[in-house]
């Protein structure tokens, strides 16, 4: 979806159309959830930018607090349009989904119709990327934003993105890009030319094989109707760093209660209970403990989380605190793919411009 949260807000407030609109919280450490294209063009405001920076860059923009119930309602309408037109739809967020278009006579015509139905039903626009794999479909969906439809084969993508940073590929983040640059890899072409054995010696067998495949834009990740939940977490970023352990424990109890409420609602139970701590110097610390049987019991989760916090006993002020439950029953471990996607297989990526 195109600037999804901002677009939903514009639907609620049509008088704001054409104006720079930024959706973000109001706290000193709030970040931008999304921004209208006007705000992006005027001041380069983008998702995950600190809200304080956005306000300095564009003080006259319209700043709105997120309204997640409205976003969930709009998302449900969008996904209903997708499901009534295509059999296999994998929803990966409120504003993003993959569709398997294999076997359709005219994928482009189908997607033009779907985009038109979404606009008619919700007033929202989307951008569509059609390609041979999930990864390429996602990359392609960004090329025509807003309201674009682009078809790109792997062969053409290798030429088009030859000089681009490996960071173009979903899953290759800034830290990995920096490590690649340290060994002389600054472009996708340079990554594709490296031997798998060299990458595996630097990044480990699994990550090296995954990078080798992605450098050649290979991806065989299937599209599934439902995504398996691997973990659930709740966290809080403090407006002011917290030093007192008693205050940290109070927040941890509240986070555990919210997490267990969500888990019970979804009937999820896990065996690994963990905490996440970000210190004032941005050091990230994780601690976890496995229990004998899967649980979402508040008493158990709270007890273990508190024990982990007390055992770590942070010696610096804490910026962020979180609680996590993982190792759900039936959890799968993803495997990087290296071989070519079957001929004739088409996938659609449908994503937000972040």
Query: What is the total tally of β strands?
Result: 12
Helix content estimate: 25-40%
Poorly predicted runs are: 330-345
Terminal CA distance reads 10 Å
CATH architecture field of the largest domain: 2-Layer Sandwich
Largest sheet: 5 strands, mixed
CATH class of the largest domain: Alpha Beta
Number of domains: 4
Question: Oligomerization state of this entry?
Answer: single chain
Q: What is the CATH T-level topology of the largest domain?
A: Dna Ligase, domain 1
Strand content: 15-25%
Name given to the CATH homologous superfamily of the largest domain: DNA polymerase, Y-family, little finger domain
Instruction: Please trace the helix and strand order, writing H or E for each element.
Output: HEEHHEHEEHEHEHHHHHEHEEHEE
Q: Could you describe the 3D structure shown?
A:
With 354 residues, the chain is an alpha+beta fold. It has four domains: 4-66, 3-Layer(aba) Sandwich (MutS, DNA mismatch repair protein, domain I), CATH 3.40.1170; 69-156, Reverse transcriptase/Diguanylate cyclase domain (Alpha-Beta Plaits, 2-Layer Sandwich); 162-215, 5' to 3' exonuclease, C-terminal subdomain (DNA polymerase, domain 1, Orthogonal Bundle), CATH 1.10.150.20; 231-326, DNA polymerase, Y-family, little finger domain (Dna Ligase, domain 1, 2-Layer Sandwich). Helices cover 40% and strands 22% of the residues. The protein contains 13 helices and twelve strands. It has helices at residues 4-12, 37-43, 51-57, 68-83, 107-122, 134-141, 154-160, 174-182, 188-193, 196-203, 205-215, 245-266, 298-312, and strands at residues 21-24, 32-35, 62-64, 89-93, 96-100, 128-131, 149-151, 231-242, 270-279, 284-295, 318-328, 347-350. Strands 4-5-12-6-7 form a five-stranded mixed sheet. A four-stranded antiparallel sheet has the order 8-11-9-10, with helices on one face. A hairpin with a 4-residue loop joins strand 9 and strand 10 (284-295). Helix 4 (68-83) packs antiparallel against helix 5 (107-122) and helix 12 (245-266) runs antiparallel to helix 13 (298-312). It is globular. The protein starts with a helix and ends with a strand.
């Amino acid at each position: 979806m195109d600037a999804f949260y901002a677009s939903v807000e514009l639907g609620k407030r049509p008088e704001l159309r054409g104006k720079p609109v930024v959706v973000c919280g109001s706290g000193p450490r709030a970040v931008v959830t999304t921004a209208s294209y006007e705000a992006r063009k005027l001041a380069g405001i983008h998702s995950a930018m600190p809200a304080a920076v956005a306000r300095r860059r564009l003080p006259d923009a319209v700043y709105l607090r997120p309204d997640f119930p409205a976003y969930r309602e709009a998302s449900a309408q969008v996904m209903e349009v997708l499901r009534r037109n295509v059999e296999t739809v994998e929803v990966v967020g409120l504003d993003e989904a993959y569709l398997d278009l294999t076997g359709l006579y005219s994928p482009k015509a189908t997607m033009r119709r779907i985009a038109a139905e979404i606009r008619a039903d919700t007033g929202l626009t989307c951008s569509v990327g059609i390609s041979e794999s999930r990864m390429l479909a996602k990359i392609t969906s960004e090329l025509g934003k807003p309201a674009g439809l682009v078809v790109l084969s792997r062969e053409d993508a290798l030429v088009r993105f030859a000089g681009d940073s490996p960071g173009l590929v979903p899953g290759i983040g800034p830290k990995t890009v920096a490590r690649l640059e340290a060994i002389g890899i600054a472009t996708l072409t340079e990554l594709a030319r490296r031997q798998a054995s060299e990458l595996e010696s630097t990044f480990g067998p699994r990550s090296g094989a995954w990078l080798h495949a992605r450098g050649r834009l290979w991806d065989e990740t299937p599209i599934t109707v439902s995504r398996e939940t691997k973990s659930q977490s709740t966290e809080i970023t403090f407006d002011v760093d917290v030093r007192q352990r008693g205050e940290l424990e109070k927040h941890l109890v509240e986070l555990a209660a919210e997490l267990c409420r969500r888990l019970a609602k979804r009937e999820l139970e896990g065996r690994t209970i963990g905490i996440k701590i970000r210190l004032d110097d941005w050091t990230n610390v994780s601690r976890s403990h496995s229990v004998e049987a899967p649980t979402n019991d508040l008493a158990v989760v709270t007890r273990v989380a508190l024990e982990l916090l007390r055992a770590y006993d942070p010696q610096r002020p804490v910026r962020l605190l979180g609680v996590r439950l993982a190792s759900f029953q039936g959890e799968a471990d993803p495997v990087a793919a290296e071989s070519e996607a079957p001929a004739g297989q088409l996938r659609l990526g449908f994503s937000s411009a972040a």
